[in-house]
Structures are given as structure tokens and as C-alpha cells.
Design a protein that fits this description.
alpha+beta; YehF/YfeS-like_WGR; WGR_domain; q64v53_bacfr protein fold; WGR domain-containing protein; WGR_dom_sf; 1 helix; elongated; five-stranded antiparallel sheet
Length: 80
């Protein structure tokens, strides 16, 4: 997982949210998991978490992805 984009829609509650994650290398042999979330069509909130290895960042991202899927988020494939 280097990039993941997910959305959750509930028309009844007027809920249209997105969540995306990136795993990227840092400058000092570290790795970050960059998370952005918010309402679809609006700028989101961005947070970074730092990890010593790429594998740790990917594991953290996969755990978050699993939690979001349980809440109703669905992965949206990248458009090429």
C-alpha cells in the first residue's frame, strides 16, 4: 500500500466522506504515513505519523484501512 483512497456515503444522513493514506520516505531514513480525511469535494485534514521502517508504516496503514472498512468506507480504484 503506497496510496489508498476510500469513501463513505450515507444519503440518509447527508454523509459523504473520504479518507486517503500515503506511505512515503523521509529525509533521515525514516518513513511516514500521511493521512487525509474530510468531506468529499472539500479540502481535508492532514496528519503525519513517523516510523522507523517502511514495513511499520504499511502495517499501521493496513490496520487503519481495516478499521475504516468496518465503518463502511470502500476503496476507490485510482483513475489512470
Amino acid at each position: 500500500m503506497n496510496h489508498l483512497y476510500m469513501e463513505r456515503h450515507d444519503d440518509k444522513d447527508n454523509m459523504h466522506r473520504f479518507y486517503q493514506m500515503f506511505v512515503t520516505p523521509g529525509l533521515f531514513d525514516d518513513w511516514s504515513l500521511i493521512k487525509e480525511w474530510g468531506r468529499v469535494g472539500s479540502p481535508g485534514t492532514v496528519r503525519k505519523e513517523w516510523f522507523d521502517t517502511q514495513e511499520e508504516a504499511i502495517v499501521a496503514g493496513n490496520k487503519l484501512c481495516t478499521a475504516k472498512c468496518k465503518k463502511g468506507y470502500q476503496s476507490i480504484p485510482a483513475v489512470r
